[in-house]
Amino acid sequence: MRNVLLILSMLALVLSGCDKPKEVESTTGEAAVEKVADAEEKVGELTIYSGRNEEMLKPLMAQFSEESGIEIKVQYGKSSELAATLVEEGDASPADVFFAQDVSTLGFLANEGKLVANEKFAERVPATFRAADNTWVGVSGRARVLAYNTNTVKPEELPADVDGLLNERWKGRIGWAPENASFQSFVAAMIAQRGQEETKKWLEGVMALAPKAFPSNTPLVTAVGRGEIEVGLTNHYYLFRLKAEHGEDFPVANHYFRSGKSGSLVNAAGVAVVKTGQNREAADAFVEFLLSKPAQEYFATKTHEFPLVAGVETGGKIPKITELKTPATDLSTLGQLEPAVRLLHEIGALK
């Protein structure tokens, strides 16, 4: 089936490295599932394909099941691989809901005609973080940042945007994770904003600085803390997991780009209802639950992500999402990673 092999090779999305979650503190999300819980007929088992970390989601899944009375079956894995499975299964897929680590995967599934529109959720989150046709909706956001070693780098030395990294100051001292889908999505956003030729020039400029490549974001940020490199391009929340592991004196801080260029990208994890699912009412209730205040507060305080529903504050360790000047990028197009991956091969960042 078309694009199945491409998604396996191009959309190798990694699971988020979030802080180890604690139990959800609020149980006021009952309204989000009240309709299903009160239904006269028993709702069948809800099957969820989740590209998000099992340990992170377990408290939320337990709360939803307890409040709604809906039994859930969750298949965990990489978002890209689960998406390929869904496409291969066709109409026989047991999935009712697809919960993706990155909305680029949902963009792919929408293009494959695998998702159903949910207009009832259209106004719950800003237009930037939902599909124009309402086939998916963002649940939580994560920002691209420059993690830096606080022992060796002064805040005033940090560039205003990613173009400022093309400086001999950072030669041999910068890290990136070109194999990681979050980095590839960042490159895709740059292509959308400035075109392939200019993006290639930027990538070649970084390559000239002899960057150290990492397979994923956690070892990259760890290397910043150890002083193996001084700065690294990553997602903002990895820092908090490592501080939880190593202590608050772990010598790394996040530098947020606020220029409105691709380095300021805020991507999202998202959820969608599968068109061939047999449990639409329960699927809608699950989406509603993820957009409820307690679930949004959980993402804000336990995984240090940006809540996307209005009225929910971010955790105290990250800025408000409204304070970040983000690029005008259609996040659903970031599922088209082939041009980004091709450029990374051309410049030698990927073998």
Set out the fold topology:
Blueprint: H1 4-10, H2 34-37, E1 46-50, H3 54-68, E2 72-76, H4 79-89, E3 97-100, H5 103-111, E4 115-116, E5 137-149, E6 174-176, H6 181-194, H7 196-207, E7 212-213, H8 217-226, E8 231-235, H9 238-246, E9 252-256, E10 266-274, H10 280-290, H11 293-301, E11 306-307, H12 338-346
Parallel strand pairs: 1-2, 1-3, 6-7, 6-8
Antiparallel strand pairs: 3-10, 4-10, 5-8, 5-9, 5-10, 5-11
- Please report which band the strand proportion falls in: under 5%, 5-15%, 15-25%, 25-35%, 35-45% or over 45%: 15-25%
CATH architecture classification name of the largest domain: 3-Layer(aba) Sandwich
Based on Cα principal axes, name the global outline: globular
How are helices and strands ordered from N to C?
HHEHEHEHEEEHHEHEHEEHHEH
- As residue ranges, the low-confidence spans are 1-28, 35-42
What number of structural domains do the residues give?
Answer: 2
N-end to C-end Cα span: 26 Å
CATH class of the largest domain: Alpha Beta
Radius of gyration: 20 Å
Q: Which range best describes the helical content: under 10%, 10-25%, 25-40%, 40-55%, 55-70% or over 70%?
A: 25-40%
- Please report the total strand number as a whole number: 11
CATH homolog superfamily of the largest domain: Periplasmic binding protein-like II
Mean pLDDT: 86
